[in-house]
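stuck on this chain:
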Amino acid sequence: MFTQGRIRVIALATSDMLCIAGAWSLTVWAYWSLGAFLRSHGWPTCPWGGYDLVAYVRFFPVAFVFVVVNAALNLYHGNWMYPSSPMPPVEEFRRLCLSSLLTHFGVIAYIAFAYQTTDDRISRAVCLYSCMLVAAAAQSFRNWMRAVLLRFNIGQIPVVLAGGGPAAHRLAVALDGDPYAGIRIVGYFAGTERMGRRRRRQTWNEREFQSLGISYLGTLHDIVKESQKRDVKILFACQDDRMFRAQMDEFAAWFTYIAYLPAAREFPIFGARAVSFDGLGGLEMVNQGRMKIKRVQKRIMDDLLAFLAFMVLLPAFIVIPVLIKFTSRGPVFYRHRRLGKDGREIRIWKFRSMYKDADERLKTILAKNHDAAREWVCSFKLVHDPRVTPFGRFLRKTSLDELPQLFNVFSGEMALIGPRPIISDEVHYYGDAYKVFSSVRPGITGLWQVSGRSDTDYARRVALDTYYVLNWSPWMDLWILIRTVFAVLLMRGAR
């Protein structure tokens, strides 16, 4: 039963070894090449790269050490012999960074002990740069391997699903074709023997599950029997709490892993921990956004990263205004009314990407084109927007039009990372979640932007924004920032 999971573990371990071997080789070569270049151009005493490249070959066991540390940190679906669900991607990123640090610290300690600190044949700087490179790239290597596994339909861990309501359907949609999760739902169970066939169809949306290729395997009373036939030992239970508690002993007699996901809503789960009092087990959830010290930490982190981004992107702030002026008439900047923290109105800065008479053009388009009007009502965006200038399309595709919002960050109106600022007409999409959503400063980039950006439907955007607010952590911000860089460079989902 766990064969597919073990194949997945082996594949992930292979990607980890490839990552650290590649990072180590690239860093050693780059450091040596830089030193050789400087010595040949007037710096004969340059200390960089003055070593034998072959000396580093004997450090190949570092790749295996990295895998062992990863296994100790439960980075292979919890248990490398009996793998199940993966940890959240932000937590995986945090642990990969920790693993890279521990592995390379061990190498530095070995170098200091084996060679004493007087031997310069082995560079400590190489270890430092390799550590940072592995921390930044390890998850990308893993995601590439996951995509390969999904493409060839191997290493997908089989599970059965208990329940057929909204929570079960949402879970099925989320797992369908998700390379990160690597979960294959064998089938689902819903209803009881007392309910007729007709009522079951009406109650559990059988057609929606069939559209995902998930078969109905029987009632909730058939779960263990049918799972034994298929040798599936992982259960995702999205059923009623009373029914779950009644069947818990039956489940425990067969299933190795039981995940209980009773509600189709977001919880502050990041940083949660198991608690037990006199045999009563439960989950303590942590809402880190309610801790004042965490909010101060985020403000400092946002301002520091925004300043560094501004310094790096300073040439863009000089070139882009000139190109805007050359390609269309009108001002360089554009200010748009949005809702900020606690629903207060703010005006966010952007590089102008539309024609000067964009508002008049929009009214004309929506009045004459019914398809465009429907698209605007659904997402407040147009895929083929005639208001956008040719250079403006490039700015939007690369998200460079949003760079001036760094000034909003400096003024305290926005955060570098957070839920996207919305207009007043969008508030009704958030419903009761708007109070949670508006409790933090909106951000230039956020979780929904790195999860599809304009390709993400509105319902999922609301869910992602709410999840971010409830589960914020510095590691989540760092993870989003790295994914934003890749999303912008690949111009994924932007319009």
